[in-house]
Each structure stands twice: as structure tokens, then as C-alpha cells.
């Protein structure tokens, strides 16, 4: 393993070329080979930072075969950098197959920190960041998109999606239809570029904003949806089932306390509910 080469995961700018790190420039200049999602696109960046390292393509359509070739080169001692068209590789970009194979074949993988549209957008959105989930691009087909949104209807964490300009309005309409027009959302577009824009409001308001000006639908988008707000007095079905089960074995206060701790609910509300169960059962 000591003689194997290393795979470097190198983030590249998402718009502003000044965002490339000094470490990224050094690594790209020192490795023997750069695997790029689109070699023609990446060549422009390399020319800008005066790097002539040889490029080889690695994208969704050739990754399985290319990964095998690159593993062989890594085993021969070559150091390789992986880059995508923009941002951090593997985050809604190719590279998973290669990294997975590197781990399976005892090749060191060294990820560099750097630009990522999802994190950049989230940090400036003003939505909760203590918990969030990243779902990449929503499905293009309408029914699949609706099902995906239904799956996060009661998700309490902030949800982050990427979206294309041609689908952003339809996706926002789906958010309104499935999650409700009052759900808080933030739309970020053209991050780090000249026309970077953040729009914050309800889903209804964001949909209206998108349709107000055709320019609002141009660019690459990050869509962030605020998490579902639970009512402190709203008791999930699974919590009620557990309460009923425990009521058969424990005193109401004890049963209510256990369920309250398990689901983060108010103990007194559960206690009153438990008493109601007991009265109904007695009747």
C-alpha cells in the first residue's frame, strides 16, 4: 500500500475562479493525472491557473470502466486528482464508483475542502442548519417528483435540492401542491457569480417571484425548504400506539413520561390522553 499512488478529491469553483484554494492549485500541479467530468470544460480552469497536468475523462457514462483503469494507475504509483465541472466531486457529480473502488483496493483517498453549492447556499439562507438533508436533484418526471416531496412532508430538517433553470418553476409549483404554499423556502441562484440572488419567502411567494420576471428562472439553482414545524400538542400515531401499549403495563404518569422522552412531546398532554384512554376502556 505504501507504494500505491493517492487519489485526491479536489473541489473547483462554482462560479468565481478566485474561490479555488492554494492547496487545490498545488495538488493539481503536482499529480500525474487529473480525472475530469468534462475535459474541455476543465481545461479552461487549468489554463487560468497555469497548470498543464494531463486530463482524462471520468463521467456518468464511463465511470465503471474508467475506475478500473485508474485503479491500475494508482497501484502503479501514480497520483491522481478527481475534479468535476464545478464544486466538490461526488456531490451530485460523478466519482462515487471510483472512490468506492479505491477504498476496496487499499488506495488512499484524500479529500480537499472547498466550494460546494449546497453548503454555500445553506450558509446564507437563514434557515436552520443544525440539521439538514441534501437530496440532490429532484426527479424530472412529475409523479416521481411528487412522491419525493411527499416523502419529506413531515421532515423536520431543512431540505436542500439542486434544480435546473428549465424545471425550477415546475418544481416550485410541486412544492406548493405537496408541502403547502405557506412552507418557508429559500431560492439561491448563480452562487458566487455576478448575478447571485437569494429569494426568501413562502412557497407561494417564491412561485410568484419566479413567474414575475423570466430572468428569475435563469441560472443554476439551489432550492432550500424549511423543515416541518411540529405542534407541541400534536401526537404522532406511533407515539399513541406506544402510549396505549405502555398503559397496559404501567401507571399513566410513568407511561406518559416514557413516551414524552422518546418523542420529545409534552408529558402532561400525554398523561391527559392516557387518562382518556383509561376512561374509554372503562366505559
From TrEMBL:
InterPro entries: 4pyrrol_Mease, 4pyrrol_Methylase_sf, 4pyrrole_Mease_sub1, 4pyrrole_Mease_sub2, rRNA_ssu_MeTfrase_I, RsmI_HTH, SAM_MeTrfase_RsmI_CS. The keyword Calcium does not apply. Its EC number is 2.1.1.198. Residues 6-206 form the Tetrapyrrole methylase domain. Keywords: Cytoplasm, Methyltransferase, rRNA processing, S-adenosyl-L-methionine, Transferase. It is found in: Cytoplasm. Residues 234-276 form the RsmI HTH domain. It holds the Pfam family RsmI_C. Belongs to the methyltransferase superfamily. RsmI family. This is Ribosomal RNA small subunit methyltransferase I. It comes from Paraglaciecola polaris LMG 21857. The lineage of its organism: Bacteria, Pseudomonadati, Pseudomonadota, Gammaproteobacteria, Alteromonadales. The gene is rsmI.
